[in-house]
Amino acid sequence: MFRTATDWLGVYREQVNALNVYPVPDGDTGTNMHLTMQSVRRELDTADDRSMPSVARAISYGALLGARGNSGVILSQLLKGFAEAIRDSAEVDAAGLSKALRAAQKSGYGAVMKPVEGTILTVARGVADGAAKKADTVDMVLENALLEGQKLLDQTPDMLPALRQAGVIDSGGQGYLYVVQGMLAALRGDALPAAPEVTQYAQQGFETEEFGFCTEFLMSEATKPIEEIRELVSPFGDSLLVVGAEGYVKGHIHTNQPDELLATVGRYGKMLKTKVEDMSEQHTEILGMAGAAARAEEEIPTSGLVAVASGYGLVKQFRALGARIVSGGQTANPSVQDIVDAVRSVSAEKVIILPNNKNVLMAAEKAMELMEGRAVVIPTRTLGQGLGAALAFNPDTEAEELREAMTGASQAVTTFEVTRASRTTNITTKDGRTLDIREGDVIGLQDDELVQAGGTPEDSVLEMLGRGYDGQEIVTVFGGPQKTPEDLDALAERIGKAVPNVEVERHPGGPDLYDYLVTLE
Predict the structure, then answer these.
(1) Closest CA to 491 of 464, 471, 453, 468
(2) 259-to-21, 223, 315, 416, 417 alpha-carbon distances in Å
């Protein structure tokens, strides 16, 4: 049911995006909810489907890890409540399904500090009320749930002025109904419908303005309870959600200070994932999509680009170079299906895939096979190589012609990564040095090969630059989630003194789990 619900929502993703005006008209609700469901599907693929506790954990854990955006985080809490209600059941009958949908509603409302009616929460209440009506089968439970949920969804414009102004129903509520529709479709064996054509976007009714940054984090090993972390984050902005499950803490907030917020929160746990989206840019982008939809004679680009990346600074760079992003990388490898979904979402005759990690390369190549000639893989093994390749991308050039140029550009970039050792060991480097490494030590990798250990993260960068510099012109530094602007400035100054002939660029938003990612070109 949940696998089908993921695909069902995917069919309507762009339609849900086109409805999105609350809390800000950034046009990504459908995408965020679909990404959340995709994460659930990934966990279900590895769960023991003969064990209800295993399935329930996959739903709850997958939803939290993959939750994106305001609606995605709330959806994750709806799914958490659902999963907890079925966890100890041998099977789910009509009564059990009704109970689970009510638990979902309560979990969703409980996660939001100030619940607002006219949103996905209202529709979740309607779904739960409908599911509570007398029904003999699980099919009937879902049918009743959909009828009552639709009634409240139709009333959302009367509850929220932003929806009334735009003349639309709530996008998150519509997305949730598509999830429930997909569950029912799985029981009935219904085929996926064709994606509806989207020609109008509700965001056109709103002027571009500074909405701030949609900032998210996923943290483990928190040293403070969720309530204290929520209070810590609260002064930074609004649309605040801080939730937890399975030992993890997930945060979402709209703020104008994303770097300071992440650096502050990062002191109280192990930061696993971060995401920062400029909502003003998103709004401008969706308006551009609306204009494109209105131009019937729009030509399809010759080539498109998909890149696997994490870290909001790197994601922003790839997007600026024309890439559609698949979230993932080291320790968070995307599935073949994730990459296929991204390729299918790109309007182009042929799509180039940048895996940007040696562990993602095989999944990218499998996705290329499944796309039956519509995709090409450039075998980038680091994010630095991926950036180099993306700089050579041109949407008006044939993909086969781009392959050689982008491969050459990727190989011209040296990548340094600074992270922490996950275990105690000793390693002999290619140049014959022996590195004695303890768990937690700073380690440095050059083009994915371990070459340095010990000292501070900044020492690691300087040591690797000293070994790897060979007359290049530009050093670009991406600071990890726990690095402040002051840390980046100080490191840039040290690099400038050590290698005086290079131009040093610095950006926040490096990859998750890394102190620094540095490229040399």
Answers:
(1) 464
(2) 26, 20, 15, 22, 20
**Which two tokens mark 359?**
């562990």
The candidate with the shortest Cα–Cα distance to 28, out of 265, 327, 349, 370, is 327
Token duo for residue 358: 């040696």
Out of 196-210, 240-254, 429-443, 459-473, pick the least confident: 196-210
CA torsion through residues 143, 145, 149, 151, sign: positive
Q: Which amino acid is at 90?
A: A
Rounded distance, CA 237 to CA 192, Å? 40
Token couple for 114: 């100030």
The closest alpha carbon to 305, from 349, 354, 266, belongs to: 354
Q: 114 burial class (0-12, 13-18, 19+ CB within 10 angstroms)?
A: exposed
Which residues does residue 104 pair with via DSSP β-bridges, in sequence order? none
pTM above threshold 0.70: no
Output the CA angle 83-85-88, nearest 5 degrees: 95
Average pLDDT of span 350-358: 94
What is the DSSP secondary structure assignment for residue 412, as one 8-state letter? T
